[in-house]
Amino acid sequence: MLDDVPRTAAYRDALERNPSLMNGAKVLDVGCGTGILSMFAARGGASAVVGVDGAAPMAACARANVAHNGVDDRVSIVQGKVEELLRKGDVQLGGANSYDVLVSEWMGYGLLFESMLDTVIAARDAMLKPGGAVLPDVATIHVAGFGRNATSQPFWDDVYGFEMPAVQADLAEEAAKLAVVHGVKGAHVCTTDGMVKSLDLATMTVLDTEFSSEEVLITARTDGPIMCHGIVVWFDTAFSERFCKEAPVVLTTSPHAERTHWAQTLLHFPEPVALVPHGSFWWGKDQPKMGLIGTRTNPAKGIKVRIGMAKCKEEERARGLDISLEYEPVLEDGTPGTRKARMYQM
């Protein structure tokens, strides 16, 4: 992940450009990997850093990196799963109120797929001093609509001069069941965006990792009519002014920003929704609207969206995530169309 520049640079800036937080601080790095965040913390002024990783080869790698870069006088690496180490009372971790700062790159696809957030919360509650900093400290989830060009469908329109609608139909059917991790260009986002969830990492509990969001309205933002093929989901994590007073940082995975390894998560509609921005018309100003709201003959102004996320309860998908989506096209006067609900596996 080190070649993910937006990700790594955000952590570097938070740890190295906030002296009022970092000078003399004791820092816990949960899931330390190569040790890069631990070394950023040491270079940022921390007096002592403990990096923890559950994988023995990864912990050995981090230990070697720390020694090679001459910060092993301040950085120590502990191998083991945080929850198990806490259960054993491992003295290498320290006890309650041991750390001023907890840092972790815990995020997964869609924010919560295979994430380490439960572990971060356990470490925070067991070892962070009251009022201590969690980096990042705020995570938000956002949604918008995407057009056909964000999907794989256009490729099959002309495959060396041949059309392949059967392949398109199979792909569309499969995509309507699964949350698809795929990079989306900003130009292929066809609506405004909305924030559906905000998590305060300093105070949230494990129960907050499962939720059903408030409803948000996203509206057509293109110059003319567009078919919206689904909802694109992304997240931002903030190293906010609460703890990073000198240099707050936002790490975004937005399709409008530089791409990260998280890309975005796509929730495909089984049938696209026709949208027109304010002042635009699909057939012409004087043509009567007819049919279901959100179809070409009766396009909507926007879509009301609600999403939910929950850990999968099936044993064979023990680390999976289930994402629910409710959506409803609405006319400019607020008249709603048919509300639909779908479940996507991740």
Number of H/I helices:
7
Give the termini distance in whole angstroms. 21 Å
How many separate domains make up the residues?
Answer: 2
Q: Using DSSP, what is the number of strands? A: 16
- Look at the structure and give the CATH class of the largest domain: Mainly Beta
What portion of the residues fall into strands of 2 or more residues? 25-35%
GO biological process, one term: methylation
Pfam families: Methyltransf_25, PRMT_C
Organism: Micromonas commoda (strain RCC299 / NOUM17 / CCMP2709)
Keywords: Methyltransferase, S-adenosyl-L-methionine, Transferase
What does this structure look like?
By secondary structure, the protein is an alpha+beta fold. The protein has seven helices and 16 strands. The chain has helices at residues 5-16, 19-22, 36-43, 56-68, 82-88, 117-127, 165-175, and strands at residues 26-30, 48-53, 75-79, 99-104, 128-135, 138-146, 180-182, 194-200, 211-212, 216-219, 226-239, 249-252, 264-275, 302-311, 321-330, 340-345. The strands form three sheets. Strands 6, 7, 8, 11, 12 and 13 form a six-stranded antiparallel β-sheet that branches. A five-stranded parallel β-sheet has the order 3-2-1-4-5, sandwiched between helices. Strands 9, 10, 14, 15 and 16 form a five-stranded antiparallel β-sheet that branches. The longest helix has 13 residues, at 56-68. The two termini are 21 Å apart.
In short:
Helix content is 19%, strand content 32%. With 346 residues, it is α+β, with helices and mostly antiparallel strands.
